[in-house]
Design a protein that fits this description.
CATH topology of chain A: Arc Repressor Mutant, subunit A
Order of helices and strands of chain A: HEHHEEEEE
CATH class of chain A: Mainly Alpha
Bound molecules: manganese (II) ion, zinc ion
Distance between the termini of chain A: 47 Å
Helix content of chain A: 25-40%
Strand content of chain A: 25-35%
Largest interface: A-B, 32 and 32 residues
Number of strands of chain A: 6
Oligomer: homodimer
CATH superfamily of chain A: Winged helix-like DNA-binding domain superfamily/Winged helix DNA-binding domain
Strand order of the largest sheet of chain A: 1-3-2
Structural class of chain A: alpha+beta
Chain lengths: 124, 124
DNA sequence: TTTATTATTGCAACACAGTCGCAATAATAT
DNA sequence: ATATTATTGCGACTGTGTTGCAATAATAAA
């Protein structure tokens, strides 16, 4: 189960590093300098997820967006921040503000997905 | 563009009324006492959305869930509440707690989709 | 360096959610 | 009873994401 350093993984990783917002699978594919199969991109991203290198947001358009983890460690993640998708430029940003989860008694949280859509500052 | 009262719309509406949590298209189909085509269910739900009768949540499983609007009026909606999806029973509930959106300067909100997953009280 | 091991890839096929065009049906108005 | 047209069912389609399998290539061992 060891991980191998391949051209695909390196390319995808550096694409994520070069971008300050979250990317969908398709956005990633378009930014790659080499051609990588769709399935491979998904597999690489899912491996990154497992390894805690990236986190994933689901937008209300049904798509998955991936962004590098900032201050996460392997087993201590904190992705309880808001996300914002601009309806004009399509960018999905990680916002600084955290979501404070206050669930009813007896409820346990495992994952949070908070996304606000609207118009971003650059598009306004 | 007037709306007609049909067996399908009545059935779907009463199904939503009978349930205190949000339903996916498939859950609705299974609860109907008559057979209604998939496409029709989607069209009815989208009409309900337009009319402000229901609101929609997107889960991180990529599916849409629909729930009756509680205190909404045609043009004054407030669906900025949290939702919770139980990983065991699959129920998607509307939580009472509201999401307070504080966006960066220059950002405008149009829609909010906040969903927490985990285990609900009945399943724990 | 050569060989063996196996993680990763590409391709095709698949599953599934949601949408759409179109002709048939049925709810409402006349 | 007739006309109008919103709604339906069906099939076809789109798009996202996953999976099986054989081929490829990264790493370890010889
Ligand atoms: Mn984020
Ligand atoms: Mn709700
Ligand atoms: Zn924008
Ligand atoms: Zn539950």
């Amino acid at each position: 189960m060891e991980r191998r350093k391949t051209q695909s993984t390196e390319e995808i990783l550096s694409t994520l590093k070069d971008t300050d917002f979250a990317l969908s699978h398709k956005m990633i594919q378009q930014r790659l300098s080499i051609e990588v199969d769709r399935a491979t991109i998904y597999r690489v991203l899912n491996r990154f997820l497992e390894d805690g290198i990236v986190h994933r947001v689901i937008s209300e358009n049904g798509k998955q967006y991936f962004a590098l983890c900032e201050d996460c460690e392997r087993n201590d993640h904190h992705h309880n921040h808001f996300h914002f998708r601009c309806n004009k430029c399509g960018k999905v940003e990680c916002l600084a503000r955290e979501v404070d989860i206050q669930l009813p008694a007896g409820y346990t949280a495992e994952n949070i997905n908070s996304l606000v859509t609207g118009i971003c500052a650059s598009c306004r």
